[in-house]
Amino acid sequence: METAQEVVRLKEIARNTRKLILESLAEAGSGHPGGSLSAVELLVTLFFHVMHYEPKDPKWPDRDRFFLSKGHAAPLLYSILAQAGYFPVEELMTLRKTGSRLQGHPSMGIPGIEAPAGSEGIGLSLAVGTSLAAKLDGKPYRTYVLMGDGEQQEGQVWEAAMAASKFRLDNLTAIIDRNGIQQDGLTEQIMPLEPLAAKWRAFNWNVIEVDGYDFNQIMDGFDLAASTRNRPTVIIAHTVKGKGISFMEWSPHYHGTAPSKEKLSDVLSELK
Amino acid sequence: MSSKQAAMRDAYGEALLELGATNKDVVVVGADTTGSLKSGVFASKYPERFFNVGIAEQNLVSIAAGLALAGKIAYAGTYAIFVPGKSVDQIRNNIAYPNLNVKIVCSHGGISVGPDGASHQQVEDIAIMRAIPKMKVIVPADAPSTKGAVKAIATIPGPFYVRLTRPSTPIIYESGFEYKFGEANVLRDGSDVALFACGIMVPEALKAADSLKAKGVSAAVIDLHTIKPIDSDTVTKFAQKCGRVVTTEEHNVMGGMGSAVAEVLGERCPTLMKRVGVMDTFGESGDAGELLKKYGLTSADIEQAALGLSKVR
What we know:
The complex is a heterodimer of chains A (272) and B (313).
Chain A lengths: L2 H26 L5 H4 L2 H11 L14 E4 L5 H11 L38 H15 L5 E6 L6 H12 L5 E7 L2 E2 L2 E2 H4 L5 H7 L3 E6 L3 H13 L5 E6 L25 H6 L3
Parallel strand pairs in A: 1-2, 2-3, 3-7, 6-7
Antiparallel strand pairs in A: 4-5
Helix pairs in contact in A: 1-3, 1-4, 3-4, 3-9, 5-6
Chain B lengths: L4 E2 L1 H15 L3 E5 L3 H4 L2 H6 L4 E3 L4 H13 L3 E5 L10 H9 L5 E5 L18 H6 L5 E3 L4 H10 L7 E4 L5 E2 L14 E4 L4 E5 L3 H14 L4 E5 L2 E3 L3 H11 L1 E9 L4 H12 L3 E7 L9 H7 L4 H13 L2
Parallel strand pairs in B: 2-3, 2-4, 4-5, 5-7, 6-7, 10-11, 10-13, 13-14
Antiparallel strand pairs in B: 1-8, 6-12, 9-11
């Protein structure tokens, strides 16, 4: 497919993804819109352009693996998995409700979910584990993990970063949703991360920086990651918390506050 | 009980070697203590299936979880003070919650670690691990049962915690015995008092039973190696039969095996009992034998507890 056409296709999926995130959060009455909306284009590109998987056979051994390390972005991942065909889109409206498969943070038992998430800082280590197993088994699958930027404050992230470069895991790609905001405020005020790219370079990672809303840059980033040998790649994606909804953008409040049902139609009208 | 002694850690290494030969899915993850734990012998034979993550216990647990997610049976371990000590969240959320095939085997449980002191003497691990849903907990009594347990759990899906001890310990089980997960081993029958023991307290309980016998007290000795799920039927049966119970473990009396026994008996067969263990305190540096004496973890302490109970009417 022509790149321009592909971008149009991905943009449409992204628009629908934002709609599903907001609808499911409004129905749930609680949850985390900010960090779900910021990373939409990253996961849309991964799931609808990059990764190999089989929704009718979720445990296909050769599937690419995806770990959501920033587990609070569950509404984003659920919206993606539903559109990919892992479960019915209607099920998104059961998010966070008693008896639903769609737990507030990802858990086993949801088709397409590889591991539970919710405790920050541990997804990269899981990804190191599956990447090691792929090498051991001579399997071609790749492992992807989406981390938050606030999460970079967790020490275990750097334990895993060291291990991934020690074991030369070129089948592992980490993505950082660098939206600059965490629950209590700006990352650079709460616990500064910069120079973030230099930190990852110092840990012997291949570092790629992209605009988190430029599909061409994102696609090129994943291509470059896949062709890099002998070391893991981290894609630092510069993003905006709450992207797409004016009053949620750059707002720590909407890290963990769902849109109200009453306001939903106004909110959705903002989606381009 | 044989007069011979052997190290549980050596048995762990031997079990890993045998598992490595028969099951290609077995992998081992270590954290800079693999020489001490003897998991290093697996590294020499199967280097491609061995991963040393350095001094990073949280990463150790989560990488083992990742390997299990990809179909491996991951044995991960270090000293018990660090796992579970420094990695409870990873054990809970990465291993137990998704019910993964990770077998955590850690050495240096209890105060018999000795000269390293309280910072290295883990007396809370059984309580921590027992409280995590889906986690199963084993505290073997000697080297042969360690080997049996480590091999047996490879074939039982899900997460396990196996707690080993640093010093060599008396051999209780003859080679050739079959380890059975979840089934308490009745080492000696008795009718006056039931002594439930685990780990290095099993040989002490046997000694105490000998001494009690000389004083006309018939003591049953039960090796409660599987602490979770506990063998409730055997616990209840011997409590009913003897009417008095002593538990003994190299662990805080709060939350460990004694607590597990009390939970069973409180619901099924309220029985007069005494817990012999670490009395909710930290250890200190010293010779292992001297520390066990100082902290009330000897056959004499068990005997005294049993005699004290038999005076209660």
